[in-house]
Each structure stands twice: as structure tokens, then as C-alpha cells.
UniProtKB/TrEMBL annotation:
Coiled coil spans: none
Pfam families named in the record: MerR_1
Highest taxon of source: Bacteria
Protein's UniProt name: MerR family transcriptional regulator
Keywords, in A-Z order: DNA-binding
Upper lineage: Bacteria, Bacillati, Actinomycetota, Actinomycetes, Pseudonocardiales
Molecular functions per Gene Ontology: DNA binding; DNA-binding transcription factor activity
Species annotation: Amycolatopsis eburnea
Domain (HTH merR-type) ranges: 1-74
SMART domains linked: HTH_MERR
Claim: rRNA-binding is one of the keywords in the record: no
Keyword GTP-binding: no
């Protein structure tokens, strides 16, 4: 297959994937398509599945490319168990889905969902909360509408997560530290990638997008490890 045909196959599950993204993953050694005598890329079905693996691992598991490559190398050598592979993509439940099907989904990709805008009513329905709970989330900066008053899909994920945490006695006001920490991390990432985004070269901008994903994935990993270490200390383990 040509790179355009591969893109068409992937777009159904990964709407944000681009030719530049595929080229970047090739440059990083995550996929190695063949070449025609004229130099055009030729992708096999196995290459497409490999790309699905990478994209799902990034989006659904927040894995940095280095870790993904290690998993792929282990699978290539026969040392990696099939259970370690990322699961199929998971998305937000459609607005008209039955309430019993709405659980706590895995957070989407860091740049996905920009085109999808939710009204307050849609957010309340998908998140399973009432207007008072949403007002409290907004009061403490955990959920923020856009300039036009709409919400993005991540707001649903945040609301569902906070709702689950309230079952353990944690209230939104207790989570202000999470918002402050996230804002500090975003500020740090902006300092790193903003100069690259200013380039008009599409390839440079695509590279900046990948840098954002990598740094965000590493930030999530570091945060998780620090919390785990702290809890381990509290538990005396």
C-alpha cells in the first residue's frame, strides 16, 4: 500500500493521524516500510497493524515512543507477551448511548477532540452529573468551557473521574492542587514547544506536535510514579 492508502485505513480509528505523523513514526524507527525502485514507500498489512499498535499505545495508554519501541522490539524478538499489547481504541460513549454503557473511559489523545463541542446539557448527560456538580467543578477550575461556552470531550472525562473520586469522600475543592499542578506542567511544555510551532514548515509543526505528545506522556508517567511512591510510603510498603 501507498502511504495515502495507509492513511485512509487508519483514519477511521485515528482521525487525527496525518501523513506527516506516519513519516515521523518511520523516522523514529517504529515502522519500516519497503521502497519501490523509484523510492516510494510500500506498506504491508503488518506495517499498518504496527502503526495501529503505536497510535493506540500513545492515545489510550500515554506511552512515550521509546517505551512503545521497546515493546515492539520485544514482540519482534518473540520475548513480548501478547497481553502487553495495547487494547483496541476506546472512545467516548455517543451522546445517545444508554446510561448503563457509560463508564470511565480511557482518556483520549492529547490533541484529539478539538472539533467536537458539547453543550452544557450534553456534558451533564454524558458525565452523569447535575448542574450543581458542574458549577462546583467550574468553581475550582477542574472543568473549563471554551470561549463560546462549549465543552470538549475531556471535560466529560474529568467530570466522570471526579464523580468517581467523590465516592471515596474526596470533594472537588480538594482537587485544586491537581489543577494547579497541571497548569504548571502545561506552562513548562509551552516554553519548550512554542518556538517550534512558530515555524511555517509543516514538517516542523508536525514535529512540535509529536514533542508535545512525548512530553505529555512522560509527564503522566512521572506523575503516576510519584503518586505511587508517595502512597507506598504512606502505606509503609
Amino acid at each position: 500500500m501507498s502511504i495515502g492508502a495507509v492513511l485512509a485505513q487508519l483514519r477511521g480509528d485515528f482521525p487525527d493521524v496525518t501523513i506527516s505523523k506516519i513519516r515521523f513514526l518511520e523516522a523514529e524507527g517504529l515502522v519500516q516500510p519497503g521502497r519501490t525502485p523509484s523510492g516510494y514507500r510500500q506498506f504491508a498489512a503488518a506495517d499498518v497493524e504496527r502503526l495501529r499498535f503505536v497510535l493506540a499505545a500513545q492515545r489510550d495508554h500515554y506511552l512515550p515512543l521509546k517505551v512503545i519501541k521497546e515493546q515492539l522490539d520485544a514482540a519482534d524478538s518473540g520475548a513480548g507477551p501478547a497481553a502487553a499489547l495495547p487494547r483496541p481504541p476506546r472512545r467516548l460513549v455517543p451522546i445517545d448511548a444508554p446510561a448503563e454503557n457509560v463508564g470511565l473511559p480511557v482518556a483520549d489523545d492529547f490533541t484529539a477532540g478539538k472539533e467536537l463541542r458539547l453543550t452544557q446539557e450534553e456534558l451533564l448527560e454524558q458525565a452523569g452529573i447535575d448542574a450543581a456538580a458542574l458549577a462546583e467543578l467550574q468553581q475550582y477550575g477542574l472543568v473549563r468551557p471554551g470561549p463560546a461556552g462549549f465543552f470538549d470531550p475531556d471535560a466529560v472525562l474529568v467530570a466522570r473521574t471526579v464523580r468517581a473520586m467523590t465516592e471515596f469522600g474526596i470533594e472537588p475543592r480538594h482537587l485544586r492542587a491537581f489543577r494547579a499542578a497541571a497548569d504548571r506542567e502545561v506552562g513548562l511544555l509551552e516554553q519548550i514547544v512554542t518556538p517550534v510551532y512558530r515555524h511555517r514548515d509543516p514538517e516542523a509543526q508536525a514535529r512540535a506536535g509529536e514533542v508535545v505528545r512525548e512530553l505529555a506522556a512522560l509527564s503522566v508517567t512521572l506523575h503516576t510514579l510519584l503518586v505511587k511512591a508517595g502512597i507506598r510510603g504512606v502505606a509503609g510498603c
